[in-house]
Design goal:
Elements (H helix, E strand, L loop, with lengths): L1 H5 L15 H40 L11 H12 L12 E4 L2 E4 L12 H21 L4 H28 L7 H9 L1 H14 L4 H27 L7 H13 L1 H8 L5
Antiparallel strand pairs: 1-2
Helix pairs in contact: 4-5, 4-6, 4-7, 5-6, 7-8, 8-9, 8-10
Length: about 270
């Protein structure tokens, strides 16, 4: 009965509207704003610190690869003289610095003969592989497998050289040197190797005179270079002086078996 009366024309029920809660909306808006702002600030801080950490470590250990290819003809000629004839280098062995962005940075190789580069090591390694293939052809032993094996041996020798230099620096507390610097120093070995192999192609007996010479020159060059790195990064030089001398001597002597192993083509 009451339902029928409610459905009659002109008899409409008043709508039921919920009472608004201004305090709830205000608290909700303020809370969500605080959460979004806090998460945003934390995210920006986290990403910023992570980016700075990555950039600092990349620049610390790997540096800028383009830096190592800023060379010219004059630098290449002078650098080859220093690597192949370190006894004739009368200048200093320290690197030249310049202020960049409020801090000191090393000048690129084009302006500093003592700066490491990757142009000469890569070109010397390529020359080493080409001369190896030519030597295999003269012996009648050329094959893609033999050349591939020699390529792998060259990379292994380069890796062992880098591991030797890096281990020396770590043992003396100077392991923070950029990795590409060490790769460049280790790759200079292929300049002397290529010279000795080229001489053997024209006169086989010259190899036995040149190989000890280039091994000794590479040892002297690395000793001079590693001393500079150690002086720059290690403050307690007197504390490790005797140990340092033995390790540097071991590094220089290790060049002889490494060079003869890399230069052995089965002749």
């Amino acid at each position: 009965m009451y339902d029928n009366l409610g459905n009659q024309a002109g008899m409409q029920r008043p709508p039921v509207n919920p009472q608004p809660n201004p305090f709830g909306n205000a608290f909700y808006g303020a809370g969500s704003g605080l959460i979004r702002g806090g998460l945003g600030a934390y995210g920006e801080k986290f990403l910023g610190s992570s980016s700075e950490f990555m950039q600092s470590n990349i620049s610390k250990y790997f540096s800028n690869p383009q830096y190592y290819f800023q060379v010219n003809d004059q630098y290449v000629r002078n650098k080859l003289k220093v690597v192949l004839f370190p006894f004739l280098h009368r200048g200093h062995w320290t690197r030249i610095t310049e202020p960049v962005g409020g801090r000191l940075s090393y000048k690129p190789p084009i302006y500093d003969i003592n700066a490491p580069d990757l142009y000469i090591p890569f070109m010397a390694f390529g020359t080493y592989i080409i001369l190896a293939g030519f030597s295999f052809g003269l012996m009648g032993k050329f094959s893609p497998e033999a050349l591939s094996l020699q390529f792998t041996r060259g990379l292994a020798g380069w890796f062992m050289q880098v591991a030797l230099l890096k281990g020396l620096l770590y043992s003396l507390g100077g392991g923070e040197a950029p990795l590409l610097d060490i790769v460049a120093y280790g790759g200079y070995a292929f300049t002397g190797l290529s010279l000795a192999i080229l001489a053997r192609i024209f006169w086989s007996y010259s190899y036995y005179f040149l190989m000890p010479w280039v091994s000794m020159c590479m040892g002297v060059f690395l000793v001079k270079t590693m001393k500079r790195v150690i002086f720059t990064e290690i403050r307690s030089y007197e504390k490790h002086s005797s140990r340092q001398h033995y390790l540097l001597l071991f590094m220089a002597i290790a060049q002889f078996p490494l060079f003869f192993w890399l230069g052995n083509f089965g002749m």
